[in-house]
Amino acid sequence: MSSSRRNRKFLIPAFLIAILAVSMLAVYMSQFNSAKQTKADPNVYVGIAFGGNTTQQAETLIDKVKGYTNLFILDVGRNPISENQTKVEEICDYAVSQNLSVIINLGIKDAGDASSWGWFWNQPSLDAMKQRWTEKWGNKFLGIYYNDEPGGIQLDASWRRFYEYVGENLTKVDFPAAQSLYDIYQKLLKYVENGTKPTPDDYDLEANFFIQQVIMGDPGIQNLTASGITSFTSDYGLYWWDYMGGYNVMLAELGWNASVAEQIALVKGAARLQNKEWGTMITWKYDDPPYLDSGEQIYNQMVASYQAGAKYIAVFNYPYNGSVYGTLTDEHFASLEKFWNTITTKKPVDLSSPLAALVLPRNFGWGLRNPNDTIWGFWTADNRTEQTALVTSRLLSYYGIRLDIVYDDALFPIEHANYQHIYYWNSTTP
After folding, report:
1. CATH 3.20.20.70 occupies which residues in the chain?
2. CA 225 to CA 413: how far, in whole Å?
3. Between the CA of residue 244 and those of 207, 378, 383, what are the distances in Å?
4. pLDDT tens-digit profile of 312-364?
5. What are the residues whose beta carbons fall under 8 Å from the beta carbon of 6, sequence distance 6 or more?
6. CA–CA separation, 378 vs 199, rounded Å?
7. Domain 5-153+210-346 in this protein, CATH class
């Protein structure tokens, strides 16, 4: 979701090196509309992920959308707002006074220049801040947006370059992530030497590294978990393992010309089987202005998210570049208002029940975005990617947003969801 997304993917291995060195629309809506369905629950959070730089920009945006939203995400990350407790609280005070709930992004803990937002992360415990904000805002304080796109970064980071820098030196570092990466490095060496690729059930090392080191080992996630503050982030892949690592709520990014139905299927299936909450973050379609998709397409994506059962639906609003309302235009505001009116009056049919599931292999961390997508960021296509792509495409064409994509995992039995139809990656499709 970040504007520097592509650059950060190549910086993350360098970030890991530093840590190791010192101690990680074709939207489906119509097929089932004529079927007899219960009405969708209107109790959903709808709003804007604000990416501006000043309190004035935030308050101006709140005044613009307060009549047809109920959520304000202070998604400022590393900028002058997040460095200043007074500004953060001033904006949230104003949002709550306008009857909006708030989610707050306060940067990343211990990532290079953490002192710039140390007022929050350098506290011995987050319990006091949780108590302070709960007393100020009550149940309008929903939680903390922490980090950004951990799964996408895992898929797209330049891990080969990382091994060129580190390689055998991993054995010289007394740090848990080092041993995990070294074991994966040895697998890569075998492949380079004799073409040996992982067997169909041999991605446990990669999954464990991501769950235990990238997410569970993150000091920010540890602090949020210890305090019981609900943790949010957005992503565009590996949602299943984002949840396993400790995130409470994942927001699937809808943008970049990716399949809306597929992203919803991935996050919804993971959330359903793991008993988590989910939502969508409608983000950029283009790298340059106008950045966002048309108002009509954004409206369709919001409706699809709502019908599929999303609890949170937000539009990413960055950059500002001199504009009063950031990347949002009158067309986008009109679509937001239309969507709000739709879910509070017309109430689209509910397509969120567990109708069909596609079960992928255990720890098969394939990105699914294209035939050449990576597996865990380390591997190219294996002997299952072609068949998986084929069955996924067919099922999405047939079920659309009524499909869940899940993984074969004994911790989360597929039978517990009571799906009407279950398909496996190597099975015959409808």
Report:
1. 5-153+210-346
2. 25
3. 10, 20, 26
4. 999 999 999 888 999 999 999 999 999 999 999 988 999 999 999 999 999 99
5. 156
6. 14
7. alpha beta
